[in-house]
Design goal:
about 300 residues; alpha+beta; about 30% strand
Length: about 300
């Protein structure tokens, strides 16, 4: 049956208490590819507890529960086959830097349900608050094949925005491990699509694919290290659209465009955004598959 959009939208927020510490942060950083070379000071800020900085995308796994793309499937009115589910996009807004250790309350609810005819798109928003107030807000866009057709609002067109003009200001490559998905899933995303070859085949893939949120985190780390000299506290918001899959063992090519007039910009230069505020536009592709698109409409806002 089609998704019961009214039931999903009308459901009360689901609230859970979450907690994390330095071990969870360290595991997440290793899961997105940090720690190579192991003794590099730039890597140690992600892998050594005495120097630990929390990459803001850790917010997507903090507390170790199911990620938004999975949590949305347990909302009243949503009863679908996991093999038909894809992660369409992710948005994150930081109200404060994510602490190394924390306890917070996470309230999640479906805020949009779009009828694409042959598919449905759900948007699950999660508001996270601790004793000092709001910490972050994230939204997961969940694409469910074969579940449209109830006559509802089609929502945004989903067409990609205009790509950045001109050559990128910087291009970085990030080689993924063969076991990257097996390591990343230890942070809480147990979807068999990322580990079980038989399940991946049933979902239409030649082999298990990497978690989109792993690529999401690896990309943010590349931007922070390149443009912001590793200062994770300056990230204000981060959004992307998942344009294609990544297979473990592939190489990500991350293209970045600085804001106009940023001091120190230019291909091959780093630290361009050490002062001021702005937005970095990013595209990510898979090197080994002729630059097949992976992330699109990607923006990191910093201050």
């Amino acid at each position: 049956m089609p998704i019961d959009a009214a039931g999903a939208l009308g459901a009360a927020p689901r609230v859970r208490e979450i907690a994390w510490d330095h071990k969870d942060v360290l595991l997440y950083h290793l899961g997105i590819g940090a720690g190579r070379p192991a003794t590099d000071p730039r890597e140690l800020r992600y892998t050594l507890e005495s120097r630990l900085h929390v990459l803001p995308s850790f917010a997507t796994v903090a507390g170790g529960g199911a990620p938004g793309v999975i949590a949305a499937l347990s909302v009243p009115g949503v009863d679908v086959d996991l093999a038909q589910v894809l992660h369409g996009g992710q948005r994150l807004r930081l109200h404060r830097p994510v602490p190394v250790r924390g306890r917070a309350s996470a309230a999640s609810r479906v805020v949009a349900a779009y009828d694409k005819g042959t598919a449905a798109v759900l948007v699950l928003r999660t508001e996270v608050t601790d004793a000092d107030g709001p910490l972050w807000t994230d939204e997961a866009e969940v694409y469910v094949r074969g579940e449209g057709g109830w006559g509802g609002d089609r929502g945004p067109s989903g067409r990609p925005s205009t790509p950045p003009a001109g050559p990128p200001d910087h291009v970085a490559e990030h080689a993924l491990r063969e076991d990257q998905a097996l390591l990343y899933r230890l942070s809480g995303d147990w979807n068999p699509l990322h580990a079980d070859p038989e399940f991946a085949a049933r979902a239409g893939f030649e082999r298990p694919v990497l978690h989109g949120l792993c690529t999401y985190g690896a990309t943010l780390r590349t931007v922070v290290d390149t443009l912001l000299d590793g200062d994770v506290s300056r990230v204000r918001a981060y959004r992307t659209r998942f344009a294609g899959v990544v297979y473990p063992g592939e190489t990500l090519r991350v293209r970045m465009w600085w804001p106009a007039g940023v001091d120190g910009g230019g291909a091959g230069r780093t630290g361009a955004g050490r002062t001021g505020t702005g937005e970095v536009r990013v595209t990510v592709s898979a090197v080994e598959r002729d630059d097949a698109a992976v992330l699109a409409d990607t923006v990191v806002r910093y201050g």
